[in-house]
Amino acid sequence: MTASRSLLPALAILAAGPAAAADIDAETIIVTGRGLADRPGDATAGVVVLDRARLQTSASTRLENILADVPGLQQFRRSDSRSANPTSQGINLRGLGGNAASRALLILDGVPQADPFGGWVAFPAYATGRLGRVRVTRGGGSGYWGPGALAGTIELESAAPGDDLPTFGATLAGGSYGQVEAQAGAALVRDGGFATVSGAYARGDGFVPIVARQRGAADRAAPYEQASGALRGVIALGPATELQANLSAFSDRRERGTAFTANLSEGADASLRLVGRGRWGWQALAYVQTRNFESQFAGIDAARNVATQTLDQFGTPATGIGGRVEIAPPLGAGLNLRIGADIRALDGRTRERFTFVAGAPTRLREAGGRTTSGGVFVDGGWQAGDLTLTLAGRIDWWRIADGRLIETTLATGASLTDARFPDRAGTELTGRAGLAWAATDWLTLRGAGYRGWRLPTLNELYRPFRAGADATAANAALQPERLTGAEAGLVLTPVPGLSLGATGFWNRLDNAIANVSAGSGPGSFPGVGFVGAGGTYRVRRNLDAISVWGVEVEASWRRGPFGVRAAWSHVSPRVVAAGSPLDGLLPAQTPRDSVTATADYTHRRLTVATTLRHFGGQFEDDQNVRRLAPATTLDAFIGVPLGGGVTIEARGENLFDEEVQAGISGTGVVERATPRTLWLGVRVAR
Hints:
The protein has five helices and 41 strands. It is mostly beta strands. The protein has one domain: TonB-dependent receptor, beta-barrel domain (Maltoporin, Chain A), CATH 2.40.170.20. The two termini are 35 Å apart.
């Protein structure tokens, strides 16, 4: 945390001295707290923006649930960060699901956010009250943003004065199942800069994850307790240059609904970003991230009456260090160019006690390694009248090193496994090209083609894991995933306030990493040991490919205080695996259809909003045997102003208490996501 300590003096200056910044230059200085402006070439991509108003008026305050406004954007499982296993919360788009590592790139103020060890997302770290905008770019390509943007990019931006950021804001709400949520933040704004501090806390007694018809004495509610905090400062170093400093931390404790299933995630981030907006635009970013994850696992007897501990993952420390630089030279009217380079180095390991006998562990495992990826990129755009062209390309160098799987006996320290895997390295060429044409005042056509890639996570490479009776072996020989895709779309604006859009796309994900079934219990299997009756043995493998055809349809209408937004995503994915029983099947955890529709009314700060969501059926497993049923939910939000910046809020999630199936075990036991949950709270903004 040396880098974190080095930020403290800068943050102290930012919090105490924006007025001093005014002495830098007598001219009017405007700070934004953001990076360089959005690229004009983004007009060729399918971009969805969730503004601060939407972030503040959702029935759920959790980011992962708000992201469901974007059809086709999904986590590996349907449950959210109150009850899901944290390792299942990877983000995907456009039917490219199939494992828990994110295939969409999540970024906060320019910093990649996926867990350095596992690639999942720690959603409780992102309190929505401190966010100003969420920008989702659907469609892959690793040109501008780099590795990991296979299915798209999700950009989170911290709230700034231009986002109607209050001097002081706070919310407090109580809900079903003993839940409490609180967020608070304060901002100090001056001509030469601003500073913000925010905190969030949530807890709940939880609901029972297993459906009522299958519960036994071992099943119980799954409580959680989560907290996060952030300190941010932005100061002008000149009329066109600003320094942005961020420091944040989070803690997330959950239980999975039986004894011996506690989880702990915790982490801290620090970053510095310099942004220049003069004739030559430029920015430079440096960051450090630390993470740790602890988890227990249990085996449940057939009657679900007794839980016994099977694994104690008592530490998974991981670190991410990286940086990015780019320049935007002045090229004249209609031309935009970004040239830059970035690098990210990840290091992590898991430490686990396993093979429990009479309630006590007998073996110790350590598995982990290091990965590094870095690249240079060129991203250009040209606007001429009604036509916009964009072309981006990059070259990346990657390295996987120090891979190991070490297992010993706890009693004697004797070695059982001492596998040291060879270092590997490679090069990837990727990019994106696109075109947008405003054919008339009411019709815009666009199209794009792209290539992207993702390096396997340390978790996929080296760590075997168990989920209930199922066990999955790691694979140190996994190759990077590579995506090729194309899309074409149109936007219609026939009358003011009405917008209609449609996009058709095709993606092919070569070397898709999946958990592939390779046997059934009872029996002992390589890399995992014994698998009991009803359990499935799987191995992480590169499939030949996942091929996806799909369409996205969107509509929005606003007239005065009324507004309606609706969208539908349909995908037709299939596994390409020559000579395998998986060939032609659907990827695991991938629904064909998802629909969302929101209607809202706002008048003199009175706000009413309802959101309908539909999730199509999907398969739990790679063999398309365990099918999760489709589900339709209705959420609602009402905010009633009392004056003086005080608003009373009532919220309802899943109002009709739909059974939203989140998982099915090998023995057919169904786990559900959030049931009906009602909230009442108060918001203060001054």
